[in-house]
Each structure stands twice: as C-alpha cells, then as structure tokens.
Amino acid sequence: MNRVFEMKKKLMDILACPVCKHHPLELNVTKEDAKEVLEGTIRCEKCNVDYPIEEGIPNMLPPESRGQ
Amino acid sequence: MTENEHSENTREAEIREAVRDRYKRLAQKETPCCSSPEEATCGCGGIYPSAEVLSLPAEAVAVSAGCGNPAAIAELKEGMIVVDLGSGGGIDAFLASKRVGSAGKVFGIDATPEMIARARKTAKENGFDNVEFRLGEIEHIPLESNVADVVISNCVINLSPDKPRVFKEAFRVLKPGGKLAVSDILLMKELPSTIKEDVAAWSACVSGAMLEEDYLQAIRSAGFVSEKVVDRQVYSEEQLRSHISADSFTGDLGALVASCRVSAFKPGA
C-alpha cells in the first residue's frame, strides 16, 4: 500500500501542465502493477486536457505535438 | 494567421519531425548516441565511451573533449534537483544522479518516446531511483516553476526551432539563484544559406545552431544574468564536413562552428 502510494507520488512529483503550468495535476489510473502506473491519464483541470499514460510513460507533450 | 506565420509554423513542425525521426532511429540502435565519432548524433565527436559509461566515475568522463557536459555534472552537489533538457538515452541524467545522490533528484525531459522508453529501462535495470524521465518538449517543460537547482542540457537546444522559449522555460523551472549549465553547438559566423536550409543538417545540430552572440542574448532576454561562454572548441573544416550533406556546401567551413559550454544564473538567491 505504502509502496504504491510512494510510486504514485514519485510519478506526480513536481509535474505540471506543459501548456498552462498548472500544478498539481490529477492522476487517474486504469492499469497498474506493484511498481508503476501502466495506463491512465494525468489531467489538467485548468486546460481541461488529459495527458495519456501509455506503457508506463506519461505523455506530457503539448496536445498539438502529440502523434507527430 | 498570416501566410508568413503559417509557413513559419509548418517549418517548425517539419524540423520537430525531422529531429524526432532521427532520434527515434538512434534510440533503436544498440550503441547509445555519442558513443563513437561515427555514431555521434551531433558534432560532439563521440565523447562518451559507450557501454562502460554508467560504471565510469564522472571524473573519467570529465576529461572528454567536445560538446559534452561532464564539467557541468562535476559541479553538481548532493541533494540538488537537476533538470536535463533533451535527456536522450539518459547518460547525463545518470551521471548527474550519482552526483546528487539519494537526497537529490534528476528529471530528464525528452520529446522522443523511444528515447524515454530506453532511458527508463536503463534506470530500472541499474537501480537509479532518483531519476525520472518525462516525455515532453523542452519548449513546454512539464514541471512546476522554481524547483530546480541546476538545468543542464547537452547539445540539444540547437535542435529546437524556438530557442528563446527553451531559455524562458529553463528560467521558469529554476529556483532563484539556480544555474543554467548547457553545452551546445554555436556559430562563430553566419552559415551559408545552402546549409541553413538543409533539414538533415539541422537534426545533425549544425543548421539549427545560433550565432554565439544571439544565443547569449536569448539567455539574457529570458531573465538570466552573468551569462558567459566558459569553454569553446572551434571545429575544423574536416570535423564539420562529416555532419552536413556533401553536396550542400563546397566552400570554406573552417572557423564556422564551435562546441561551447555556456553558464548563466537566475537572479535572486
């Protein structure tokens, strides 16, 4: 339990929205193991944007730069 | 949007794509970038001794010449928070991680998913618990303001189509009194237009490079003080020619490009 909490805290540590710099962001987990969040989103409520977490990697590219 | 702005945006997107594509391919190679003169991603000439790099003490790497950032890493202290812009395969971030220790933290930012995946894998396999890699743009750093003691970057800012913005972002994430310690390819004089327009030469760090005086001005404009070039290694014609396509320029390439280490501070410690 503690370990999972630590892992999430580490993931969200000083993370801010790349566009508006809002902090803290909101973590939504859809898939995780004991060590990391595998799938989910990191949400900036100010921009109303979800940054996807895919295969354990949070994609914090600005929305207009994604998928290039 | 005017037609000019539109073509400017298209050009920026084109550059971003060329850079990402090049580094994606590099991330898939077995040897890390900059591991040999042949495979160096930039003009750095292969300062890092490839596979052994992670077990090498920082001092050993510090003797390397070229566009590396080992000197900036050597100045890091225990407990510092460091941000590495364009962390790539993570070499500098890992070396920094050893210097700042368990009380410190290193954040590597890179826009190439394959590089981030590779760096994370290396971190996991080697037990680097104090390093976090984040997929993001150095023009839009996904970190809070006023958090870093030092921002490092090794031969990356010259790849950005918007360098003033990178410096503004570096300034923002630094704590008051924090240090910018970057190494980069800079121009000693204007490039011939044939090289400038070559996108391949851009991703090889050459055509995107700024004039040294403009680079320092961009750093000042971001709010930094005490900016200076602490080391400058001018490329020979032979060194430079290997990084641009053979037919794009045939004139004199001497005293045109240099690998420089630049430092600056965010005021108000």
If you had to describe this structure to a student in words, what would you say it looks like?
The complex is a heterodimer of chains A (68) and B (269). By secondary structure, chain A is an alpha+beta fold. Chain A is 16% helix and 34% strand. A four-stranded antiparallel sheet of chain A has the order 1-2-3-4, covered by helices on one side. The radius of gyration of chain A is 12 Å and the shape is globular. Chain A starts with a helix and ends in a 10-residue tail after the last strand. Chain B is α/β, with parallel strands linked by helices. Chain B has one domain (3-265): 3-Layer(aba) Sandwich (Rossmann fold). Chain B contains ten helices and eight strands. Chain B has helices at 3-27, 58-62, 70-74, 91-100, 113-126, 163-173, 193-196, 199-203, 212-221, 237-241; strands spanning 81-85, 105-110, 131-135, 148-154, 174-187, 210-211, 225-234, 257-265. In chain B, strands 1, 2, 3, 4, 5, 6, 7 and 8 form an eight-stranded mixed sheet that branches. In chain B, strand 1 (81-85), helix 4 and strand 2 (105-110) form a beta-alpha-beta unit. Chain B is globular. The N and C termini of chain B lie far apart (41 Å). Chains A and B meet through strand 4 of A and helix 1, helix 5 and strand 3 of B.
Write down the Rg of chain B.
Answer: 17 Å
Percent helix among the residues of chain A? Answer: 10-25%
Sheet/helix structural class of chain B: alpha/beta
**Oligomeric state:** heterodimer
